[in-house]
Design goal:
Layout lengths: L1 E5 L3 H12 L3 E5 L17 E2 L2 H7 L2 E4 L18 E4 L5 H4 L3 H4 L5 H8 L4 E4 L6 H6 L11 E6 L2 H13 L3 E4 L22 H10 L14
Parallel strand pairs: 1-2, 1-4, 2-3, 4-5, 5-6, 7-8
Antiparallel strand pairs: 6-7
Length: about 220
């Protein structure tokens, strides 16, 4: 499988390493062009390209960019592609986005409104880059760590679930994109290592208007 990555930060690079470890091909890009990606360690083994080259290359596209840049993504080239939304909203970085501050929308909902025609799946946003770098882990419970996904396209979700499992994680289907808020930033399932049952419980415990204290997911 060929996978394109938009966003060359920590998550994008950690994801690319797992893609290659799983036996797939990957191309990393960012909005500033391949000439700015010389810092990507050669040992990753990823190809480097422009944003449009990465989109054309990939059967699946991971988006891991500062969320306030989402409206700059090209719409037509991503139409009909499976798009993995690994983005999170950080007001200190992204500025205030009223739809999210007032809980009128989700990050994936806003991205889906922009990327009309894309097969969007929320995935890989609820894990720290340093944990994704390690691949699947066995937890003290003896079970594998699980990651949540959400989306409205069942076939796209199944493709993403297979990829998550190839990375060594279990998968929990959190439902539709409308339910993706349950594992957004500062919710109980966000970036805390849980097995499948723990993720399900954390998703159930999430409350739309209540956030966990900043930094509580870094334990």
């Amino acid at each position: 499988m060929r996978i394109g990555v938009i966003g060359a930060g920590f998550i994008g690079q950690a994801f690319a390493r797992q893609v290659i470890a799983a036996g797939h091909d990957v191309m990393i890009s960012n909005s500033r062009g391949p000439q700015t990606l010389s810092s990507i360690p050669p040992k990753i083994g990823a190809q480097i390209g422009s944003l449009h080259e990465a989109i054309g290359f990939g059967e699946i596209i991971l988006i891991a960019i500062p969320f306030h840049q989402y409206a700059t993504l090209p719409v037509e080239p991503l139409r009909d592609k499976i798009v993995l939304d690994a983005n999170n909203y950080y007001p200190d970085r992204d500025g205030s986005i009223p739809e999210l501050d007032e809980r009128w929308a989700t990050t994936s909902g806003l991205l889906a409104q922009h990327l009309t025609g894309s097969r969007l799946v929320k995935a890989f946003n609820a894990i720290l880059a340093s944990d994704l770098e390690k691949g699947g882990q066995t937890l003290p419970s003896g079970n594998r760590r699980a990651l949540p996904i959400a989306g409205d396209d069942d076939a796209a979700k199944e493709s993403v679930a297979r990829l998550v499992r190839q990375f060594g994680f279990d998968v929990v289907d959190a439902g539709s994109l409308a339910e993706s808020w349950r594992f957004e930033r500062a919710k109980p399932a966000y970036c805390i290592p849980f097995d499948r049952e723990g993720v399900r419980q954390a998703l159930d415990e999430a409350q739309r208007d209540i956030d966990m204290p900043e930094g509580s997911w870094r334990r």
